[in-house]
Amino acid sequence: MNNNLELVCTFVAKNKLDYKNLINFFSKVQNTTDYKILSNRALDLYCEDISKKNQSRLRKFCFKNKIDVCIQRKKWRKKKIFLADMDATMIKDETLDNLVKVAGIKVDIDKLSKLAMDGKISLRDTLKFRVSYLKDKSTDLIKKVIKKIRFNEGSKILVKTLNKNGYHTSLVTGGFQPISTYVGKVLGFKKVISNRFVIKNNKFTGEYIPITGKQNSKLVYLNEICKKKKLDKFKYAICVGDGANDLGMLQNSSLGIGYKPHQIVKKAVDNHIHFTDLKTILFYLGFTEKEFAK
Ligand SMILES: [Mg+2]
């Protein structure tokens, strides 16, 4: 086998994986006898390169059967840097929107947020808008939002397993401190990169300090951390996110995963998680279920 062309296709189901049906279909797109069982719901199949057309057939089959699939080069499968988005990725919530809601401000915040995540309006503009609504409101509202945070399934085991295996884990979010630092601490991220509110006398001023002060902040941070660790991002970095502001990091890493992605991410990035939880990322990285941290 030509090592550079060798692929690994990972299949993950919510409950039990129907191996027979899957292998039967797989034999129509590529020959392989090489596999590894990662769990009773996850399987690796190794093979030579698959044409774009057949990859697309395979992805459609998986989607129809509610199986998450990741197709990647085998060579750089093990990574060292992990970057994760927070809102609607590690947690279920859009925390800035929730802040505006608990403040009792009447505005269609969900719509604004969705338009930004779909890439239809600039995130920076909507962020500015959304933060400005908070002007003169008490920062006690932050506690209310933190109390209501719902973590996505698998998030804790994911970060714990990666940390245990020497990954550098960062939570990179367009959300705000101290909500982001709380989420980062609960999940065990080694680093949290986020925006900051400008606060005076325990009140929001309606202004904020952006993550890196530059466009495409998440990609800027990815570049910084990889430079610092002297690691090639196209070999050693894995990123996960759901929205338009994640695209920079998702498309400029060795493996970019769309987690229940908005349409713009779904189209731009090949590998997603639609049907299963965040532990699927561990399968994509080649961990068996027995290797997951407890
Ligand atoms: Mg998000």
Strand content: 15-25%
Q: Strand arrangement, largest sheet? A: 8-7-6-5-9-10-11
Poorly predicted runs are none
Write out the distinct hetero groups bound to the structure: magnesium ion
CATH C-level of one domain: Alpha Beta
Order of secondary-structure elements:
EHEEHEEHHHHHEHEEHHEHEHEH
CATH architecture of one domain: 2-Layer Sandwich
Described by the principal axes of the CA atoms, the overall outline is: elongated
Question: Whole-Å distance between the termini?
Answer: 37 Å
Structural overview:
With 294 residues, the protein is of the alpha/beta class. It is elongated and about 65 Å long. The chain has helices at residues 19-29, 52-64, 95-102, 109-117, 123-132, 141-147, 155-164, 179-187, 217-228, 233-236, 247-251, 263-268, 280-284; strands spanning 7-13, 34-39, 42-47, 67-73, 81-84, 168-177, 191-200, 203-209, 237-241, 255-259, 271-273. Helix 1 packs antiparallel against helix 2. It has 13 helices and 11 strands. The protein has a domain at 1-75: ACT domain (Alpha-Beta Plaits). The protein starts with 6 loop residues before the first strand and ends in a 10-residue tail after the last helix. A 7-stranded mixed β-sheet has the order 8-7-6-5-9-10-11, sandwiched between helices. Magnesium ion binds at residues 85, 87-89, 241-243.
